[in-house]
Amino acid sequence: MQDPTKKKIYTCQVCKKEFVEWVYRNRVACSRTCASKMSIGCPKPTRQKPEIHITKDCLQCGKEYKTTTHHVRLRGSNFCSKDCMYEHSSANRRGIDNPNWSGGHIDNYGPNWHRQKRKAIKRDKSTCQVCGYKSGGDIILDVHHITPAKTFTDFELANNLSNLITLCRICHMKVEKGKIPCPILLGA
Predict the structure, then answer these.
(1) Which residues pair with 143 in a beta bridge?
(2) Is residue 25 situated within a structural domain?
(3) Is 105 domain-assigned?
(4) Partners of 167 in the beta sheet?
């Protein structure tokens, strides 16, 4: 082992000025400025594998495009552009192919829906049955079907007051997504 108390005279490889430094340091530059100038000209070592360019066919438009093996490994790279990716996703993830699909949505709950909705809100005293929010603020009150309306063949049964419950918009979304259980009405 070298004696750390010994110093040696070195010559800077950038400015050719002589400087004194400890022997164990083996410096090649006299200052950080010279070391920075020296590192600008040196290529930096890379640890990544070199990227290999390949050609593929776009799944949407069929056009040939160039990509790298890195992009293929990273995200699949099946499309020549984001527009083609969005078009393909839009066309192929509708209805039952969409992971968020749960049987579709009914736009029309029948001719008695609005009357039954008003009755349910009145029965529940314009209050969310989960969090207790009272109507009158910024949050909108919704009426939720306890048993989904799409499971009924008759809208009269689907819109029966015993199957309806008043929820605020926030709690309604949580119940629909299954994050909280739907409350059951007592005495309805």
Answers:
(1) 166
(2) yes
(3) no
(4) 142
Residue 73 falls inside a structural domain? yes
**169 token code pair:** 């918009």
- Range of the structural domain that residue 27 is part of: 7-41
**Number of structural domains in the chain:** 3
CA distance 143 to 9: 86
34 and 59 both lie in a single domain: no
Distance CA 183, CA 130 (A): 7
pLDDT tens for each residue of 62-100: 999 998 887 888 877 888 888 998 888 888 777 776 666
pTM for the whole structure: 0.47
